[in-house]
Recover the amino acids of this structure.
């Protein structure tokens, strides 16, 4: 029989689904092993290991997984922690927050809202105007420098 029913496309996908979904194997093929470890396995790069930590160039830090713009160089500050730090994302909806219950403390994990890549954590000890410190892994971010 070749009577194929049309599949309804609307109302099938909940709004909170990530816009970019890939299998574990697809991510593993796309990302470097260090990126995969951090972004898909919630790892943490060693402090002071990534050049983004000291980067001062103007531009936008995009998700290394899906290219979504996440942080502006204008919100970047030197936190002294060894990880690139920002006081706010480019848009509140660019990232999503998840409670991360570790062994010793409760932290708020930050993920890319589009592909759910683990980026780092947010802490309430940042500078004004937000008082927040988005402590990110450099490997999870691609810097797109502004043209001058
Ligand atoms: Zn992403």
């Amino acid at each position: 029989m070749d009577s194929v029913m049309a599949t309804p496309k609307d109302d099938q996908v909940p709004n909170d689904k990530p816009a970019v979904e890939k299998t574990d194997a697809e991510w593993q093929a796309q990302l470097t092993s260090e990126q995969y470890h951090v972004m898909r396995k919630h790892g943490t790069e060693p402090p002071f290991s990534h050049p983004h930590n000291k980067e001062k160039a103007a531009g936008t830090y995009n998700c290394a997984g899906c290219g979504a713009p996440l942080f502006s160089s204008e919100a970047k500050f030197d936190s002294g922690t060894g990880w690139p730090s920002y006081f706010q994302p480019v848009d509140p909806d660019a990232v999503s927050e998840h409670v991360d219950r570790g062994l010793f403390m409760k932290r708020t994990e930050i993920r890319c809202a589009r592909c759910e890549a683990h980026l780092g954590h947010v802490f309430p000890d940042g500078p004004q105007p937000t008082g927040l410190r988005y402590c990110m892994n450099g490997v999870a971010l691609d810097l797109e420098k502004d043209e001058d």
About this structure: The chain has one domain: 24-145.
